[in-house]
Specification:
single chain, 96 residues, alpha+beta, four-stranded antiparallel beta sheet, 33% helix, elongated
Amino acid sequence: MFIVSLSYTAPLTEVDAHLAAHRGYLAAQYAAGVFLMSGAKVPREGGIILAHAPSRAALDTILSEDPFALAGLARYEITEFTPTMTAEALSAWRAR
């Protein structure tokens, strides 16, 4: 499991110009079962993605396809972790 923290490296006007494409990319990753949760940081200086990818290398490839990455609008900090405890609603993601 991975936590991806995006930090914008460009003004919000530039980010907003790519937002529709970014949301389409997110939707494709949800459909593929890779992204589990995402949203904007508060204050809006980036975003957070909770991802379930087969490996860090696979996630790096997926993130490189984000329109924000392609346009050089964000940097990505990735933390890998093993979810040993979860709320019952998230029990399918617990490490066995």
